[in-house]
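Tutorial sheet, problem 5. The two components below are modelled jointly, 520 residues in total.
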Amino acid sequence: MTATLDRIVHPDINYSAETGHRKSGLGVGLVALMIAMVVAGLGIYAASLVGSAGDEETLGQVLAVAFGLNTTALVLLKTGIAVVLIGILVRIWIRVESVKASLPALRADVEVGTIRTGDVDTDFGPATVSAKAPTRLPIHRMANTMWGPMLVMGVMAVFTGLVVSWVWAGNIGTSTGLGAAAWTQGLQFLGEGFVLASISFLLASILSGLREGGGEVQEALGLPVKTLKMPPTAKTFVALMMMGLMIEIAQFGLYIYITTFDDLARYTLWSSWLGPFRELGLGLLLAGIVLALATIAKALGFQFSRIRDIVATGT
Amino acid sequence: MTTATYDFDTQTSVKALDVNVPQRAGRTLWAPAFAMSLVGFAAGMILAIVKASAVADGDAVLAASLNNYGIAAMFFGFTMVFTGISFAIARILGEFRVGGGRTQEAAGSEVKTLTMPVTARAFIGLMAMAMMILMAAVVAHVVVGAQVNAETLSLVDAERWDIWLEAARRFAVSLYLFSITLGLATIIYVIRFQSIRIREIADAT
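Model answer (structure tokens):
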């Protein structure tokens, strides 16, 4: 599977060609935005039914359908983001090839001499100097393997939840309806968690690509390979992602658990905090994504600085 | 001077350009937005636990009021986390702009910098719209919560407001995610330009 995913991010195309990820990702996002507009319309209609005697069942049905559709729209938008991130990953590797091909002509012609390995401080934080390009860290290996399965499982869970939301809508006010409501929420937020985890893994794969690619370029030129050490933002990103994902798995289990309740008051009580709990999980995953992006910015700053050094000084 | 090279609209200068205003904001503000998002999520979860206690006590007015405060806190967190993501993307675009320019300058070449593409403009515009809708919804939830608590708004009217505001929040989150897609799509565009540009400079030497 890793080999298949590697082939997706290393396609054999010309460096100047468009890869199509940008258009595909934005296309998926536009479709999702249209679904979101329908959901907004359903919300306005549902609000008009509040307090109207005899419309309680219709209100419940509209809210159930809107919930299922809204989460589906959100996960489609995140899928669009994932497609664009795959495009960035593809472009990172094409960029590596371009830099590798260009730097020999651009760098100052000087003797490199003996390479001194070890730790050094840079403007971007601690780095290591080695003679060879660094190998993938375990977290990078995991990220490069897991983004695909996470994306597929997430989308499947959300679409299954969408189907269950129709069962919920068709059984308002019954125990079957309550059970379907719990299953819909649990499944769809588990799916959202998986898709956000996939996005996190793609961001980690981009970081892995920057690290490996940067090393490959320096090694190909016979230069000391300077690699930035994992910054605190990257470590916190991993912690937040794991916490968020665990909360989403836990909320799914808890939603299944409340389907066993016979007592409506107990079901309502648990539902009152499970909603914010599942949102907390998504929030932590998103907070991790902020840190991953900040780490990418730092890694890019370091790489550009290194490329400038090579061009200006030859080493 | 604005020129079009390899289908890209660029501006040419002797020295590398610095970050533009949105990128400067991105560099400065991503971290505060990140910190505020964590505060929002924590407050939202604490209010949800207090609300659950009001539900257990059968106090419908307090539960409805706390529900609105809790949603306001949680969605303040979401607004900030999406803002943090957007600013971090702007920061990445800033690194490409400055780093790409300085590399060209170091190579002794004229410096070509991309003019802001349509996707980047749409990214900023949609992000601002989404942020304003979400913040308006957060404020409205606080007002509804206060009115329910003061019993100047009935529980039925509060429910109607909840559903309206939920519709607005949902749409704003979708808009935010789409704007983020546009921001990331801009990164693809920038890397493609830079991959071509560095070969162009090497070929000219």
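Marking note: The radius of gyration of chain B is 23 Å. Full credit if you identified this.
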